[in-house]
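[User] I wish I could look at a protein chain and see how it folds. I have put the entry right below:
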Amino acid sequence: MNRNNASAIPEDVGVFRPKDAERWGVSRTALQRLLEAGKIERVGRGLYVRVGANFTQHHTLAEAARRVPGGIVCLLSALNYHRMTTQSPHEVWIAIPEKARKPNADWPPLRILRFSGEALTFGAEVHLIEGVEVTVTSRAKTVADCFKYRNKLGVDLAVEALRDYLCRRGRSMDAPRGGSGLPRGTGDATLPRSTRMTTNTAHSVKDRLLKLSKERREEFNFVLVRYGLERLLYRLSCSSHADEFILKGAMLFTVWAEHPHRATKDLTSMAAGIRAWSD
């Protein structure tokens, strides 16, 4: 096997560490040569990815799992993974044993919580993300944790999670709905420009958004969602229906402040001047 060849690294593996590479027959010296040759990329201290790897929206969770072995994704990050909330965290919420040493990680941004006993191990599920085993609290455990830590997250978020959980099980409950929006006409404002031509536009956009998330120290999925919403608003602003919608909601905070007070994933608008037809 050629240890200086990136093909020794499995294609289905996202983030990996030097000791992972050693299991595939790639020494630390060879890893450095691959890095210098531009065949792999260093995404954090002791964390690498293959150049051109296909990242998913949960790429940051895979990075966190490599950075904090034994950690469990919980609370807001678990809600986001299970699609049980309209909010998107700027950091990865991860639980570690009560007496464990706090990770010293430069990336990804982490919110460390300390659980003990069954509070840590009960309801933990292992999911495969980009070839990395990521432990995430189950839906039921996540809802219970949200109520336990309601002073950190807010009661509204806990109720929202419970409502979603019950609806998935064929039940319902009365619960408030939250709305959000984005500034009109921002278009590609969050996407860094590049003069390099590419034949794979989608992959190029994803790579640039990943780079942006690292520069801003924001969770990758949050950047993806906001970019998608801003592109939708941009296209709407260029259409003949631009004056028929009024943007509203919590994400209007981005107009008034550099850092929004609340991160949401849904888009709220109000139609104006549109004639309604009855069937």
